[in-house]
Amino acid sequence: MPQYSVTYLECSVCTKIFPAGVAHNLCDCGGPLLVRYNLDQVKESWSRDIPASAPNSMWRYAPVLPVASTANIVSLGEGMTPLLTTSRTGKRIGANHLMVKDEGLNPTGSFKARGLSCAVSMCVELGLRRLAIPSAGNAASALAAYAAAAGVEANIFMPQDVPQSNFIECKAYGANVTLVDGLISDCGRIVGERKAAEGWFEISTLKEPYRIEGKKTMGYEVAEQLGWELPDVIFYPTGGGVGMIGMWKAFAEMEAMGWIGSKRPKMIAVQAEGCQPVVRALQEGAEVSRFWEDASTVSAGLRVPKPLGDRLTLRAVRESGGTAIAVSDRDTIEAGIRFASEEGMFAAPEGAACIAAAERLIAEGFLKADDRIVIYNTGSGLKYLEAYSTRFPRDAEGETGKLGGLITPR
Questions:
Q1: CB distance 38 to 10 below 8 Å
Q2: Which residues contact 54 (CB under 8 A, 6 or more apart)?
Q3: How far is CA 12 from CA 28, 29, 210, 262, in A?
Q4: How far apart are the C-alpha atoms of 278 and 357, rounded to whole Å?
Q5: Which of 20, 13, 57 is nearest to 35 (CA)?
Q6: For the residues 313-327, what does the mean pLDDT come to?
Q7: 190 by DSSP, 3-state: which?
Q8: What are phi and psi of 118, to 5 degrees?
Q9: Contact 141/210 with Cβ under 8 angstroms?
Q10: What is the structure's pLDDT at 312?
Q11: Which residues pair with 179 in a beta bridge?
């Protein structure tokens, strides 16, 4: 399969151009950089029929990914996750065409594998060998795994109350892990303060341009899996928002290559009641969000008080005719448990919040029963056992459920 290198990088705020083949973080104005390709050249030798015979991973879309040499690709088999019809849940909430794209089946159990596969591959290509990341959990696990696979150094900063699975994963992969008494924003500040002295390349959300490229493959995949027609609605858990931003970018690229038309899904940004800066910004008519004080939620990936990509997320929501909605922790956990019992899929709280959000928006009439709805479950519920254990406590008597109980051998 032919590969095409990046043509240039462009600031998403001021449109300043940056050269390819050089390590970059943010623009001088503070805006995130976006990767641009020569799509006219790409479509001359690559069509939408070709990916079907390519590797069964996100790298089937290599011509619109930034790695120039296949020798530099660091892959653990990420991408091409299943798009599953969830008819029982759909019937209950009034959605006749409800589907879930299960990103929990990615390496390290979340969609973060896509972004970090691409970013670490580009670090290898650019000769960057000391990486640092602030993370709410799953991005740290993914960086640790891909850094281990690439043989490069990973320096990870996470809140001290990060899910245990993420902490253990990172340590097992050999990463240097620091737990911080604070939020992901505090972790990001520490990385920013220390990176120059330590010689780290910062690989934070949208502070480098390549994680978004890996995540945009979720947009290519859903189009391919639906016969190159986009759904009517996409629900996406929005912490940093990079997945939504990436898909919105993918849709534009596909249209430029003639793979799809101009129709777009309504993009629904789902946040937690305890941390909803994007929801508030949409309600206020603002272009960017304000820092959400005292952020708190069981959905670790949604505990992002001030996403760097808020401008791009809000743009996608508004241009698509979508909306942003916040869900309580209680409703999130209940939705996740009910969804598991109905469909046999154990969703991360972030994905479960989307189920609850869909039920509300259908009941309110914002969505129609016949809309084709795709919900992105961004991770496996197995990585959030602490969150779900609040619903299933094991007390001294061994009580575990309706018929449960602890049997003590005589």
A1: no
A2: 1, 60, 61, 62
A3: 12, 10, 14, 21
A4: 15
A5: 20
A6: 98
A7: helix
A8: -70, -45
A9: no
A10: 96
A11: 158
Residues 97 and 374 sit within 8 Å (Cβ to Cβ): no
Task: Supply the pLDDT for residue 1.
Answer: 40
209 and 110 Cβ atoms separated by less than 8 Å: no
Neighbouring CB atoms inside 10 A of 374's CB total 23
Tens-place pLDDT, residues 213-243? 999 999 999 999 999 999 999 999 999 999 9
CA distances from 189 to 125, 192, 204 (A): 27, 5, 11
Q: Are 203 and 123 in contact, with CB atoms under 8 Å apart?
A: yes
The mean of the pLDDT values for the chain is 94
At 178, the amino acid letter reads T
* Nearest alpha carbon to residue 48 among 223, 214, 219: 223
Burial classification of residue 393, based on how many CB atoms lie within 10 Å of its CB (0-12 exposed, 13-18 middle, 19 or more buried): exposed
| Residue 322: closest CA among 397, 389, 236, 402 | 236
Instruction: Give residue 68's pLDDT band: very low, low, confident or very high (50, 70, 90).
Output: very high
Contact, 176 vs 153, CB < 8 A?
Answer: yes
- Identify the pLDDT of residue 405: 62
| Widest distance between CA atoms in the chain | 75
Secondary structure element (H or E) that encloses residue 320, with its range: helix 310-320
Q: What string of DSSP letters covers 257-283?
A: TTSS-S--PEEEEEEETTB-HHHHHHH
Asked if residue 254 lies in contact with residue 223, where contact means CB atoms within 8 angstroms, the answer is yes
Separation CA 373–CA 375 (nearest Å): 7
Residues 81, 101 contacting (CB under 8 angstroms): yes
C-alpha–C-alpha distance, residues 284 and 358, integer Å:
22
| Residue the block writes with tokens 């060998």 | 129
Using 50, 70 and 90 to split pLDDT, how confident is the model at 185? confident
Domains of the chain from N-terminus onward: 83-109+211-389 (3.40.50.1100)
The mean per-residue pLDDT over the stretch 246-263 comes to: 97
Q: Does residue 243 contact residue 218 with C-beta atoms inside 8 Å?
A: yes
Are 349 and 390 in contact by the 8 Å Cβ rule? The answer is no
75/338 Cα distance (integer angstroms): 34
Whether the full predicted model's pTM is greater than 0.85, yes or no, is yes
Task: Say if residue 402's pLDDT is above 60.
Answer: no
The neighbour count for residue 396, using CB atoms within 10 Å, is 6
What are the Cα distances from residue 261, in Å, to 106, 235, 247, 381? Answer: 29, 21, 15, 35
Q: How far is CA 315 from CA 3, 58, 282, 286, 369, in A?
A: 30, 25, 10, 10, 26
The CA distance from 238 to 315, in Å, is 14
